[in-house]
Design a protein that fits this description.
The protein has 346 residues and is an alpha/beta fold. The protein contains 12 helices and 15 strands. Strand 4 and strand 5 form a beta hairpin. Bound molecules: adenosine-5'-diphosphate and magnesium ion (MG).
Length: 346
C-alpha cells in the first residue's frame, strides 16, 4: 500500500505539491491526471524516492521513503519499476541486453537472467525481437521492451509516466491491454501519470486530478466522470456542443440496452416532426457504455417529445443555450441525468 498524507514539495520558491493525501491499495491501478506542470511527475518520483519531499509522509508498505539512506533507497527501488514516454532504452544494446540490465546491475546469475529475459519477451509479446536493437522497433515495441525491463526485478509496483503519450491511438490501446493483463496476472500496483482521458477510462480504477500541485478531485473513475466535478470539466474543456438558440434542446442518455437510433426515428414518425441532431457521443466506463444525445425540436412539439421520453423511461433534460441543464425542465430534478440513466438501467 502507498500512503501519502499532507505531502508538500517545493523547488526553491516554487510550490509544486501542496497537501497531497492519497492512498493507493495493493493491486490497484491508480491514475494521476492533470495538465502539464500540475506536479504529476514530481509526485510519481517522490513515490520511488528519486525526489525528496519537504513535509508530510509518503510510505510504501509501511516504509517512510524519505527516511531511507542512499543504500536503502537503492534496495527499495529494486522492486519498483518505471516506464516513461520516451522509453529510455539503450540504443546500442539489443532488446535482450536492455531487459537484462537491471539484473546484471544486481549481479544475478547468467542462467537466471537468461531464463527471465526469455519469459519477459514472451509476456510482452515480442519474442522474435529479442536480438534486435531498439532503432528497428516501432514505438509500441520499444515500450514493450521498457515494460519488460521494468518488471525484470519482480517489481510489485509499476510507475508509468505518460507511457502512451508518444504512441498512436491503436498502439496506445495495445499497450493499455498489456498493462491490464500484467495487473491482472501479477496483481502489480500501478500508478499511472497521464493527461489522456482514454488511459484513465480504459486502465484506471481510481484517479486523482491534480491542479497546480493540489488535489482537485479524487474518486473511482466512473464516479468522477458521472459527477463531473469542476476540475474534470476544466480538464476536458467545457461546452462540447454549440446549441441552436431556436427551438428546444433536449439531452437524453442511451445505453447499450436501448437502441438509440430506433428511439429517435420512432419519435419522429409518431409525432410527425423533424428532429435535429445537435450532438452525440459515446462514453465507456470499463464495462458500461452510455451514449449522450442532444436533439433540437420546435417549441410546440417539445411537450410531446418530453412526454414520449418519459413514457419510454428515458431520463431527459432541457438544456439552455449556455449548455447548462435546466432543472425546471427535467424528468429527474433531484439528480444528474447520467445518474438517472444508470438508475433506470439497474
Ligand atoms: P507534470 O508532470 O504534471 O507536467 P512536473 O511534476 O514535471 O509536472 O512539474 C511540476 C512543476 O515543477 C513545474 O512547474 C515544473 O517546471 C517544476 N519542476 C519540475 N522539476 C523541477 C526541477 N527539478 N527543478 C525545478 N522545477 C521543477
Ligand atoms: Mg510530467
Amino acid at each position: 500500500m502507498i500512503e501519502i498524507t499532507g505531502l508538500k514539495k517545493s523547488f526553491g520558491n516554487l510550490k509544486v505539491l501542496e497537501d497531497i493525501n492519497v492512498t493507493i491499495n495493493d493491486g490497484e491501478i491508480y491514475g494521476l491526471v492533470g495538465r502539464s506542470g500540475a506536479g504529476k511527475s514530481t509526485l510519481l518520483r517522490c513515490i520511488n524516492g528519486l525526489e525528496n519531499y519537504d513535509e508530510g509522509s509518503l510510505s510504501v508498505n509501511g516504509i517512510e521513503v524519505k527516511d531511507l539512506s542512499k543504500k536503502e533507497g537503492r534496495v527499495f527501488r529494486k522492486n519498483i519499476g518505471m516506464i516513461f514516454q520516451h522509453f529510455s532504452l539503450l540504443e546500442r544494446r539489443t532488446v535482450y541486453d536492455n531487459i537484462a540490465l537491471p539484473m546484471r546491475c544486481w549481479k544475478y546469475s547468467k542462467t537466471h537472467i537468461d531464463k527471465r529475459v526469455k519469459e519477459l519477451v514472451e509476456l510482452v509479446g515480442i519474442p522474435e525481437k529479442i536480438h534486435d536493437k531498439p532503432r528497428v522497433l516501432s514505438g509500441g515495441q520499444k515500450q514493450r521492451v521498457a515494460i519488460a525491463r521494468a518488471l525484470a526485478m519482480e517489481s510489485r509496483i509499476l510507475l508509468c509516466d505518460e507511457a502512451t503519450s508518444a504512441l498512436d491511438p491503436k498502439t496506445t490501446q495495445s499497450i493499455l491491454s498489456l498493462l491490464l493483463k500484467i495487473n491482472e496476472q501479477f496483481k502489480i500496483t500501478m500508478v499511472v501519470v497521464t493527461h489522456q482521458m482514454s488511459v484513465v477510462k480504459d486502465l484506471c480504477d481510481r484517479i486523482s486530478i491534480l491542479e497546480e500541485g493540489r488535489l482537485a478531485s479524487t474518486g473511482r473513475v466512473e464516479d468522477v466522470f458521472l459527477n463531473q466535478p469542476p476540475a474534470l470539466k476544466r480538464l476536458l474543456g467545457e461546452d462540447e456542443f454549440i446549441l441552436p438558440d431556436d427551438g428546444v434542446n433536449i439531452k437524453i442518455i442511451l445505453s447499450t440496452a436501448i437502441s438509440g437510433g430506433a428511439v429517435i426515428s420512432r419519435l419522429s414518425r409518431q409525432l410527425d416532426t423533424d428532429i435535429l441532431l445537435v450532438g452525440a457521443h459515446m462514453e465507456r466506463y470499463k464495462d458500461k457504455l452510455l451514449g449522450t444525445l442532444i436533439i433540437n425540436v420546435s417549441k410546440n412539439k417539445a411537450p410531446a417529445v418530453m412526454n414520449y421520453f418519459t413514457q419510454n423511461k428515458l431520463p431527459w433534460e432541457i438544456l439552455d443555450s449556455e449548455n447548462n441543464r435546466n432543472e425546471a425542465f427535467s424528468s429527474h430534478p433531484e439528480e444528474k441525468l447520467e445518474e438517472a440513466a444508470l438508475r433506470a438501467l439497474a
